Amino acid sequence: MTELAIHAADRDIAADLCEQVRSAYADRTPLRIVGGDTRAFYGRPVEGNALNMAAHSGIVSYDPVELVVTVRAGTRLSELNAALAEKNQMLAFEPPAFSDASTIGGAVATGMSGPRRPWAGAARDFVLGTRVITQEGKLLRFGGEVMKNVAGYDLSRLMAGAQGTLGVLADISFKVLPIPTANHSLRLSMGLEEALAKLAELGRQPLPITAAGWHSGELFIRLEGGASSVNATKERLGGESLSNDFWQQLRDHQHAFFKLNEGQALWRLSLPPNTPPLVLEIPQSDLFYDWGGSQRWVKTHMTADTLRAACEQAGGHATCFTPFAQGGAESPFTPLNPVVEKYHRNLKAELDAYGIFNPGRLYAAF
């Protein structure tokens, strides 16, 4: 057993968590699953007894050679990132950390990924396996610690983005990647239409781009990879140097853009690649294009119906990041069509028959 594993062992409270879930299941008591509670704004508010995951923390095992780490759900993102960085490795999906209290369990449960998402993959793409506390209070393992092991793999990945509505994430195994040997970020002055055309052109070429965005007349690009490739692309694109902190500020919503004016709500528009600007009466200063234009942040007073209709017409969807109590949409996530809703209900009924896990977090009915 490694030193990290020994250090983590005394913070394993899985047995206590299982007992709390068993009691809630027997009494039909709703549970509100809480880690760092830094993502409470994402989704609908939950009423229930707190199931505190923060104390269930620590790195269970870490094999840098095999690029695999297993970590308890209450582990802070900052601690995990620091441990990986010591071995020159990282979580490639670049999960947001809205404060130092952010946990890896919350990152996976919400399924959020950072600026590297279109080039590296989503959170669920790096989940190898999980230990999940079921509705009966049983601690079950799904998946494994290698990509080749597919037994139960889909169920593990299903937990990414489920917001704790299907079970309690106890431990998670990830595939990690080496930190790129070279990086450079730059900014180019150009309008929106030109920027989108530029991104479409660059996207058809084998360039070391791992982040790209646009805001207020500036195109932002991050290059990562081998030194020769990064330097060659840097010389080709030109522009002004940009601090790498820019991407962390964007990822964690610390950029000045995310400061809302009175009455505004923050929306994320998720759209197919190379989607042209939507016809919306929104000032360009209130738009921030991320993920090469596939993820668009919008600050607006517009209604949910107006935004969602425009996104649906373009083949995408819209999610509200501002709580309803603060002026956001009553339903933060796009309503499901009847067929998809049926599958959601059936899955919820199978894994959470009495609705004890974060009831109403995704949708009011379940």
From TrEMBL:
Q: Which UniProt keywords apply?
A: FAD, Flavoprotein, Oxidoreductase
UniProt-listed Pfam families? FAD_binding_4 (PF01565)
| Record-listed E.C. numbers | 1.1.99.14
Gene3D superfamilies in alphabetical order = 3.30.465.10
Give the main EC class: oxidoreductase
Q: Which residues form the FAD-binding PCMH-type domain?
A: 1-179
Q: Does the keyword Oxidoreductase apply?
A: yes
For this UniProt entry, the molecular function terms from Gene Ontology, in alphabetical order, are: FAD binding; glycolate dehydrogenase activity
Q: What NCBIfam families does the database record attribute to this sequence?
A: PRK11282.1 (NF008439)
Q: Which PANTHER family match?
A: D-LACTATE DEHYDROGENASE (PTHR11748), GLYCOLATE OXIDASE SUBUNIT GLCE (PTHR11748:SF103)
Q: What is the official name of this protein in its record?
A: Glycolate oxidase subunit GlcE
Say which species the protein is native to. Answer: Halomonas qinghailakensis
